[in-house]
Design goal:
Elements (H helix, E strand, L loop, with lengths): L5 H11 L4 H6 L2 H7 L11 H10 L10
Length: about 70
């Protein structure tokens, strides 16, 4: 997978679309892609891939008291 070209994406989002920095960073890659007119993209995530991600990046309750 090629790295993101952040300077170009930021220019497109903030200059081209007029987004404020916080609005730009709040977008998901899919939302930014849609706003830039690049519909399509990858297939939806399936249950197996979601399970893999959940195992790799478990939620943590550090510092939280019941």
């Amino acid at each position: 997978m090629a790295p993101f070209d952040w300077p170009t994406l930021m220019r497109a989002g903030m200059r081209g679309l007029g987004l404020r920095p916080a609005e730009f960073w709040d977008l998901t890659p899919a939302e930014l892609q849609l706003l830039l007119g690049q519909e399509g993209g990858g297939a939806a995530m399936d249950r197996d891939r979601l399970s893999e991600l959940m195992a790799a990046f478990p939620d943590r309750d550090e510092g939280v008291s019941p």
